[in-house]
Amino acid sequence: MITFSNPWIGVIIPCIIIFTLSTFSAIYILPHHVSNNELTLFICASAMVWISYIIAIIVPPGSPPKNYTPPENGMKMYCLKCKAYKPERTHHSKALGVCVLKMDHHCPWTNNTVGHRNMPHFMRFLVWVDMTVGYLFIRLCIRIMKLWRDKHLPSYLFDKTEVILSIVFLPASFFVLFTVGILTIRVFVNMCNGITQIESWECDRIESLVRRKIVTEERAEFPYDIELFTNIFNAVGSPLTFWLPWGQPRGDGITFEKNESGYTEEGEPLCWPPDHVDYDPENVPLQNLKDGLRRRGEEPDCLLGGIGAGKMQAENDFYKRDHWRNVEGEKLADFGVEHTDI
What we know:
Strand content: 5-15%
Shape: elongated
Number of helices: 10
Strand order of the largest sheet: 1-2
Helix content: 40-55%
Order of helices and strands: HHEEEEEEHHHHHHHH
Structural class: mainly alpha
Distance between the termini: 23 Å
């Protein structure tokens, strides 16, 4: 995760880029080559970039209620920083110092943590940037090709300011479109699968446990993947309200619908990730690792592969959530999570 000595530097940089590309293009480049209606649409789209960006910065991601108590038959996650229980899919944000409902990641470019409540605003910002900069990039490509075709004409026929800005803005707009586009695709794909970036990392960790026969393949299935459109609507709300600056996600960020892999044959909810063990803050862990697995209807020898006690401890330490890295070298802390939960 990118970090800055002053976190607001991460906000100032996009502001400079957005202002420079949108303002100078609207004043010096586009008026000479597009209709007034097209220019007006570009200005409106640029305004929506600013509006969605400001909202993504100031709207909090959502935190659990102070009086939250876990259901008796559900998983019990406890935050040592907040000294309180928290709902499933909730993590403690190191930057904000609070637990965040359905936390996705901490974004240095908004200086805000993306969670259940502000995910639609964050996604709206990405989409408006992609559309606005994508349009500008196409227009710049057309303009540069025309300038190349007319390169033999006298220089006094060209507006030098426009030519210089077009040449500079072409690679700049491509860079913005490429980088933001990759992030948009990543977030959208996760959204389609009903998963957050943190949970995607978690799935990679669980898959490594399956390969080492530390976790059974059945228990590795992700329980929150319901159906394509249900997943999308749960994350960003109705497609009719998504384009509105105040559009909200579905649900409360505390309880979530699960697929069949999230329940036992008797209909009891299963914990995910599967190596989670409940914790009692008043005493000691409610169960040790094996007892916790049995409580969830699993046989420890099946889950832990029948390895010896010493090797089991070494394997367990290596695959702990605060130690493990994926193939890209990312740790849980790289998503802005302060690992204080048990």
